[in-house]
Design a protein that fits this description.
Layout: H1 2-82, E1 98-101, H2 104-107, H3 113-128, E2 133-138, E3 145-150, E4 156-160, H4 165-181, E5 189-191, E6 199-200
Parallel strand pairs: 1-2, 4-5
Antiparallel strand pairs: 2-3, 3-4, 5-6
Helix pairs in contact: 3-4
């Protein structure tokens, strides 16, 4: 009878050990789960905080750029107001010498505004250098050439409206000084139509 009663006690002890082992395992697993969940929530919070900080700094950057552009615009507008645009006066050169157009019959006696302005500019530039023009002749068949007669000479200056009037007048003054240095008192014409070259006859 004693042998029959003893086995259940051993069985109970074994069962108690197993139950305590299992209980320890489940508690550890629950703790691990709680720790992992808390870590996950903390990680999610950090990610959210980073996203919020990025959005905040992005908005702050855009606001700073907008503010800078605003101040730059105000600065330039203020400068424009302080320095109002001054109306530029365009000088119109009108010739005072006689103009003879040898093709007046074919053209109807009407000179282009460009031709008139060139003659007026050349007249002023020549006078500034001490040369006095007396008349301008537009040869037959020419729409760009102008012959300028000057005081003190029977000859004339062959000019072309494609060259600057100032350069042409300077070339004429140099050529007249050269002719005077070689004792040439008069000439038929001085050709000033080519840049950096002058011919006389």
């Amino acid at each position: 009878m004693e042998n029959e009663n003893n086995p259940p006690k051993i069985a109970r002890r074994r069962l108690n050990r197993k139950s305590t082992i299992r209980l320890g395992r489940t508690i550890g697993e629950k703790r691990e789960k709680l720790e992992t969940n808390s870590e996950r929530t903390a990680a999610h919070k950090k990610i959210r905080q980073r996203q919020i900080s990025r959005i905040f700094f992005t908005i702050l950057g855009f606001a700073a750029v907008a503010l800078l552009l605003f101040y730059i615009g105000v600065f330039f507008i203020g400068e424009k107001d302080e320095n109002p645009t001054v109306a530029t006066t365009v000088t119109s050169y009108q010739p005072t010498i006689e103009i003879i157009d040898e093709d007046a019959t074919s053209t109807g006696g009407h000179l282009s505004s460009r031709m008139k302005e060139y003659i007026g500019m050349l007249e002023e530039d020549l006078r500034a250098l001490g040369i006095t023009p007396t008349k301008a002749v537009i040869p037959t068949g020419s729409i760009r050439e102008v012959d300028i007669f000057i005081e003190g000479y029977t000859g004339y200056l062959k000019t072309i409206i494609d060259r600057g009037s100032g350069v042409t007048a300077e070339d004429a003054e140099r050529m007249l000084r050269y002719l005077a240095s070689i004792n040439v008192g008069d000439f038929q014409y001085i050709d000033l139509r080519i840049d950096n070259k002058a011919y006389w006859k």
